[in-house]
Model the fold of this input.
Amino acid sequence: MQPVISVIIPTKNEQDNIVNCCSAFTEQLETGVCEVIVVDNFSTDATQELAASLGVRLFSIGPERSSQRNYGAQQATGKYLLFLDADMILQKETLDELLQRCCSSMPPDAMYIREHRVGEGLKAKARNFERSFYDATCIDGLRLFKREIFMQIGGYDEALVGTEDWDIDRRVLAQTKNVALSDGVLIHNEKQLSTKKLLEKKAYYASKISDYQKKWGNDKITKKQLGVWYRFVWVFLEKGKWCKVFRHPILFSVMMIERIRIGVVYLKSRNK
Done:
């Protein structure tokens, strides 16, 4: 029996997350509807041992997330490819919806999945509030792909770091408009992500932005993704989203303070 969905999870030292991430697919693994492929970047903790105990397919390769994802896709046998990070948990209802859509008479070529960030404190709530504005925008990233579409466009660009999701979005949308947004939710566990770690992560990605700009130039989409107007203003107002801003003024204020801090880090990293 060919799996409907191959779930591909790149990892590196994810012993605290990998069990919860993979366990969401236990029932589907038993029935063969899904397969789970963990591609580990030579972890030094117990990630590989824990993954192996869960009955998933396990491989070791690096050096970055894109190459891990592409390798997992090459090993996959499913009709669809679903890419998750180890600190994510797919809700059962969301998985059921994805399977139903993939097996329908009019299946999508690719799908976005709404992301719900989980963490502790007001800042974590503000980050989740911010993420809710990005669903299916040019700042979001597709997570589910029809395998033939993914292979046709050549998978993730391994020369890009941090912007590979934006890049593959653009290449998929150039091939097909049969793209959908899931009604379900993908839980993103950020309990271990402090503000310091977040800023370090953003600084690292910002230092790699030039590779994306060299590839795509400064066109309309790139201007929206990297420009101040869209990232700080319009994405929160378009398509009636301004109503949510007025309903949650405190979260919006905390979110904007964090956005400004990240913006400063971004500019400093790019000017190095």
The chain has a mean pLDDT of 92. Residues 5-192 form a domain with the Spore Coat Polysaccharide Biosynthesis Protein SpsA; Chain A fold (CATH 3.90.550.10). The radius of gyration is 18 Å.
